[in-house]
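During the reporting period the student researcher (J.K.) took over the structure-prediction task from the postdoctoral fellow and processed the backlog of single-chain submissions. One of the processed entries is reproduced below for the supervisory committee.
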Amino acid sequence: GDSASLLEADYRAAVATAAAHSAATTAKLSTEVEKAAACAQAARQEAERARAETERLQAQLRTVEETARATQARGERVETQVAELRKQVTASSTPILPTYLRYVVKRGDTLQRIAARPEIYGDANQWPRVYEANRDMIGRDRKLKVGQVLLVPK
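J.K. obtained the following structure tokens:
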């Protein structure tokens, strides 16, 4: 039996070495698994932060887009109002007829005759309108001078 006991001792030593090696490998693998789990946890947390940031940015983008749409709509309303005001200004800036006629006094004219003329009032009784409009030029005596220019209210 010496060789059998040597063989057995070698076998035991090999088993012990294998067991020690296995334990070291298991410990090493266990450490690697823990590191991998920690990395996975960190990656999950980073992914969650990125997801939350993405949601925040999407909400911000929606707000900016809504503001842009509202601003564009407001701009279009203002353009419509400006166009409408331009139409009104154009329509109201049609030439306004003068409110006075100019009449040059002829020989024999009186305020009544001027008022009676068809192109003036067609009514001699309207002479005070001509007088009031030209009172400073005519004077209290109501004497007209040939060639004098009178303003006749329409």
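The committee noted the following: The chain has a mean pLDDT of 90.
J.K. will present the remaining backlog at the next meeting.
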